[in-house]
Amino acid sequence: MSNEQRRLYENNEPWEKNVPADLIPAIERLRETYEDALWGFGQTTEKFCYAHLHNIQVDDTRKEYIDFLKHMRARVRPGGDQRLQRLLKLGTPSAILKAFWDLYLDCLTVEALWVLQELIKIGHANRERLSIGQLEWAEAQAQHLVRDHRYRIPIWVRNVCDRQVDDPEDTEEMVHWRKWQAPEFLVMEPFRYAPYDPSRAWERKDSETSLRWLNVLADDYVLHIESKIKKAVGEAALEMATQPSVVQQSPHIPAHSGQNGVKTPNRRFSAKREVRISETQERYKRWRKAYRELKKRSPGKSDVWYAKRIEEMDKGKNYRKHYSWDTIRKNMKK
Question: Is a pLDDT exceeding 70 seen at residue 73?
Fold first, then answer.
């Protein structure tokens, strides 16, 4: 797949573009909910998949991951849980990978569809204020959210197969892990389509082929969940078409009435704004520190180069929210 084709599965514009300003906090909360779920689902399946592939015990002294795995299995019952058990019984690396990959995507799909339903409610309540149709708007917001986390899939796949060895002398490799070589079982049945060959399952491919495989899996993540979103939007359109239209007033920005009927800002929103300011300051501080360290190790590079390295470093740390290199470039010297 070419770079131009791949752009079909990536975001080109900010999600806030078609969102009324007073609705942004609500959408941010939905995005955070999905990000939290994605992080939890990813960490849990990564830990158990790696343990099964390498025949080791899961290190979970407080049983946090074990309890979360039970929660995930309950989310996809009965079919998803039965498939998980059936694949694990096969015991091959390809079957193990598919077992936890399917569980990961199934749980993310459930979460994405819940977010979509909330977006549809918001869109319906504010339909007169949107620049596009309410369902189109909700679908676009849900798709943007899913695509925002496409980059996590290659990280997940590499981490379930191997543990990266830190090399302070090779900053580029620590950030990008470009030299990683995929095992052959990534394209074998039942995970993919090549016949399973136990003698070749752990043979490694070259880095270029490995990167191509990772991109295919990242696209599969997007396509899988977006197809479910599209189907749900179609069902919502059918349901709306069979119901009478109800005129609703546009909601106003929340406020509390003070003395003499004068409206004062909602304290809850003020507190949230303070939290956002604090988080922003911490983020800029992290970027400035990373910029200084990179400049010491690799002097003479452009600001764009440093910003892109910091962007990749942030992605590798699994922060709940990530920012583009251009945003980092504008703030890493402040």
Answer: yes
